[in-house]
Amino acid sequence: MVEATALFRNAAGIDTAISILKQRFGDRLQTGASVREQHGHTTTWIENQSPDAVVFPTSTEEVSDIVKTCAAHKVPVIPFGTGTSLEGHVNAPAGGVCIDLGQMNRVLAVNEGDLDCVVQPGVTREDLNTHLRDKGLFFPIDPGANASLGGMAATRASGTNAVRYGTMKDNVLSLEAVMPDGKIIRTGHRAKKSSAGYDLTRLLIGAEGTLGIITELTLKLHGIPEAITSARCSFPTVDAACQAVMTTIQFGVPVARIELLDAMSVKAANAYSGLKLPETPLLLLEFHGSEAGAAEQAETFGEIAEDFGGTGFVATASTEERSKLWQARHDMYWASLQLRPGARGISTDVCVPISRLAECVTKAQDKAAELDLLAPVVGHVGDGNFHTLVLIDMDDADEVARASQFVGWLNDLAISMDGTCTGEHGIGQGKKPYLVRELGDATRYMAAIKAALDPDNIMNPGKIV
Description:
The chain is α+β, with helices and mostly antiparallel strands and 465 residues long. It contains 17 helices and 18 strands. A 7-stranded antiparallel sheet has the order 15-12-14-13-17-18-16, sandwiched between helices. A hairpin with a 4-residue loop joins strand 17 (377-380) and strand 18 (385-392). The longest helix is centred in the C-terminal third of the chain and has 20 residues, at 397-416. It is globular and about 65 Å long.
């Protein structure tokens, strides 16, 4: 279990900054215990470390004013979107002021002819796609949770569509951000490419709020496909399912989504979502294109699946059937918790080269069994990324220790396979011990960038480096 280490707390500076901000923001600054606790981390086993105050700005200029006040008194600032991150990203280990960006939730512009849009950071992915629906456009990044787009950029999110459409770093053209001194910068414009200077856009994407606070995003959009075909297929083993995934990718089939559920996850989905799927490893897929193209892609996958023992292959263009299957996939966290009522679900992710996927997933399952842990597996396996949800009794110290051993072992396994300790969850507090193992001396240069931009370490301290 990762210990959420407390950092030095500048009590006098915090009190002064909150007093100043209270005069500026009135009821939009809250110090009640319940509000503060809601803005600390609550979605994993990392201890909740609440901020001293939560403020709700409505504009970039207000964010700048907050940061300037906090910078003047060396007070930490922690940006907050919807709180769906999984590695302690929104904890306040040194106390300070949480900046909740939820009220900055406007779609500022949609440029249909250029396939891009400009949004504030509090807009969620579902809200954006609802706004775009009548324009025939959509934003493809889907991490599962209805996360805010600012938070998705800050954690370099990806999800089920990443195998075809990429991750957040591939779909953000430019950013507006408030830097540690309170100054507002813009990292680019709406051109589809640029060779102008350092790529500050990519530097801030995935920085988890440690270098600046994102206050506006210019995003790439895509046309809603003419046809969408979903498919499902069961396999005798996880290894067989992963081999089918690798072959599908290597054959160049332009699959939009390809998701793995192991037997335990299928059992959970059946019970929670009212499905009647065979309780063996399952692949869920989606194909985008013309009606003929999507159907042909599905047919090609069906032939590949048969070579690896796939059974029960079903493809459908029915919106109702597609929605039912993908909703079950998105509900897997809650469904898996029902496998062991009362247990805490500890979600962790790794990503490996596609050629090592089958080996990595199989070893993870074997290790969980060896440690007597219940750990269902799901994954965005088209790009080698998968998740385990370890279900544990937090009152059982021995079980917590075994779960911690498993998570550490899995991170090290992925790194040893030329992979990464996190494909999409990010580092936060939880993955910090593994970043140095993965990148070695490169982390020294990350720390140098952090120190140069944020010498007083007020931007989301205690995360990444």
